[in-house]
Amino acid sequence: MSSPQPLIQISGLSHWYKMGDEELRVLKDVSLHIHHGEFVAIIGPSGSGKSTLMNMIGCLDVPNEGSYRLDGQEVRELSDNRLSAIRNEKLGFIFQQFNLLSKLTALENVELPLIYRGLPHKERRMLAEQSLERVGLSSRKLHRPSELSGGQQQRVAIARAIAGKPSILLADEPTGALDTNTGKEIIQLIRELNEQGHTIILITHDLTVASQADRIIHIQDGVIAIDGGARV
Amino acid sequence: MNITQSLKMAVKSIMSNKLRSFLTMLGIIIGVAAVIALVSVGQGAASNITTQMQGLGTNLLTVNISGRGVATSLSYEESLTYAAVPGVKEVSPVISGQVTAKNGTDNVTVQTEGITPEYETVRDYHVQAGRFILPIDIEYRQRIALIGTGTAQDLFGTSNPVGQSVLLNGQRFTIVGLLASKGSSLQSSNDDKILIPISTAERLLKSKGVRSIYIQAQSTDTMDSAMNLIKAKLLNKFGSEDAYTVFNQQDMLDTASSISNTLSIALGGIAGISLFVGGIGIMNIMLVSVNERTREIGIRKAIGAKRRDILTQFLIESVTLGALGGLIGVGIGFGASKLVGKFTSLSVSTSWNIVLLAFCFSLAIGVIFGIVPANKAAKLKPIDALRTD
Ligand SMILES: Nc1ncnc2c1ncn2[C@@H]1O[C@H](COP(=O)(O)OP(=O)(O)OP(=O)(O)O)[C@@H](O)[C@H]1O
Ligand SMILES: [Mg+2]
């Protein structure tokens, strides 16, 4: 059923930031495969490089060294425009701080990636309304983010992430700004999305959250310490 | 992403901060309004000058004699021979000078011209009451005078001057005609003057000869040839080109319109500078806006906006600001020129060309000054943009 080739193929990936003369190595020789339909949680202490890895996977940044193949394509070789297109078509982002545009309504926020994809108005509307419905927020589509609760805002952000039907959802501490109950609901929602076929990569501090995933990857000091349940 | 989408986003962003947008546009608004109003006034002045020049008479040559050279003067009898030059229709010699005019206790110094009857047609001066100077007045050296409306007002107030007498340098003259008002020209009021027969003037002004000769050509076509013949004749008489000057009315018109064009350009230039400053205002605010919206740009890029999308978004925003400011400016400039025309003595003429030019200029400013901020926004790396707050 799944293609023989992993969706995400990372090998020998290293990344560092230049701080004046010093180099701060954040990821050290990371290798990792993730297949279609997996639900992966990445955990690790603060500053261990989780978000940096996530940004690489999300094509928001390119590694200094090593190879990252997404769907068989070497990301380092792609142009800025191609990276934008890939983010638009294959990736959906869910951030800790929701990152909705405050001047737009919920519906307009969800529509935004579809605008950049160049879909006609009608189709956009339809897809956006569908994904708002999937997160259970149809009744709030004309509200602005400031008129929504934290949990509702994160639902809108999830709706935006899934509107374009991407294969991968990247969630960087999606429950970090929410209370425990709301957080649970959001994780439940993410689980459902995984069951519907999205590949999920979730960063969290919280072990109970991580336990929802099929596979837990521990990162420590820029290296993968434990990779539980990796399919070989 | 297409242009209508970008336009919608731009309008949304402009409308979401109305006061700031308005203040940003203010420079453009003032610039465009100033360009239109000032150039309208300049062009009004230009067309005013042209009409006034044409009011001097048509196909007119003016000879001024300063009297340097072998011969130093030209008698009025001799000046009449210029009428025989081919292409010349009529000749009006003038002896002029300042004279003290007195009526009872009122007394003014006034420009007095000794003229012949041809003055009426050549200079296009007419009487509104009484009669003009006749050949017989010249022949008999009559002490009669025509009076301009301005001088008449000074000496006689509201009473009718025709038939009254006036003392010119102590000599008694009878006023036989009141000149029609001509308004004022660039140099002086055309209505503050007294006209007397040229033969009488020779004595009154103790003048040896004519100071100027107004020569009317038969048509515009004969102007140049007549002018050359006259110049040759004058050179022959005086032996030096310094002794006289010959003006062609067309030349004066050209000079005047080039002066007023220069005026228009200068006014337009000043206004253009304020338009430019307005452009800098747009750039400034756009740069601030790019900084403030760094995170927004990061989010947009993260969900798939390309460089081009961000570039057009900000560019369209600044062009829209320029266009909107331009439109408001056109309205205000138009209104202001209408008001100036209505409530001041300045004449105003607004041409569509300048309106169009000013508007296009403000659009161009939106583009030019929008490029730097838009490019800055487009080049942001999504990862850096997302990290700022
Ligand atoms: N742009 C940057 N420039 C310099 N150093 C950076 C930059 N981004 C991250 N770092 C550093 O890289 C290290 C890893 O950061 P990263 O954000 O990946 O950590 P994290 O595991 O996500 O931590 P947390 O759980 O607190 O979010 C940190 O020490 C951080 O200071
Ligand atoms: Mg992090």
UniProtKB/TrEMBL annotation, chain A:
Keyword terms, alphabetized: ATP-binding, Nucleotide-binding, Transport
Pfam families xref list: ABC_tran
SUPFAM superfamilies: P-loop containing nucleoside triphosphate hydrolases (SSF52540)
One term of GO molecular function: ATP binding
CDD domains: ABC_MJ0796_LolCDE_FtsE
Domain of life: Bacteria
InterPro entries for the chain: AAA+_ATPase (IPR003593), ABC_transporter-like_ATP-bd (IPR003439), ABC_transporter-like_CS (IPR017871), ABC_transpr_LolD-like (IPR015854), MacB-like_ATP-bd (IPR017911), P-loop_NTPase (IPR027417)
SMART domains: AAA
ABC transporter domain span: 8-232
Matching Gene3D superfamilies: P-loop containing nucleotide triphosphate hydrolases (3.40.50.300)
Record PROSITE patterns: ABC_TRANSPORTER_1, ABC_TRANSPORTER_2
PANTHER family documented for this protein: ABC TRANSPORTER DOMAIN-CONTAINING PROTEIN, IMPORT ATP-BINDING PROTEIN
Name of this protein: ABC transport system ATP-binding protein
Origin organism lineage: Bacteria, Bacillati, Bacillota, Bacilli, Bacillales
From TrEMBL, chain B:
TM stretches of this protein: 21-42, 265-290, 310-334, 354-372
Main location as per UniProt: membrane
Domain ABC3 transporter permease C-terminal: 270-382
Domain MacB-like periplasmic core: 21-232
Keyword check for DNA repair: no
Family matches, as Pfam families: FtsX (PF02687), MacB_PCD (PF12704)
Keywords assigned: Cell membrane, Membrane, Transmembrane, Transmembrane helix
Membrane topology: Multi-pass membrane protein
InterPro entries: ABC3_permease_C (IPR003838), MacB_PCD (IPR025857), Macrolide_Exporter_MacB (IPR050250)
Coiled-coil regions listed: none
Compartment list: Cell membrane
Similarity section: Belongs to the ABC-4 integral membrane protein family.
Protein's name in the database: ABC transport system permease protein
Organism taxonomic ancestry: Bacteria, Bacillati, Bacillota, Bacilli, Bacillales
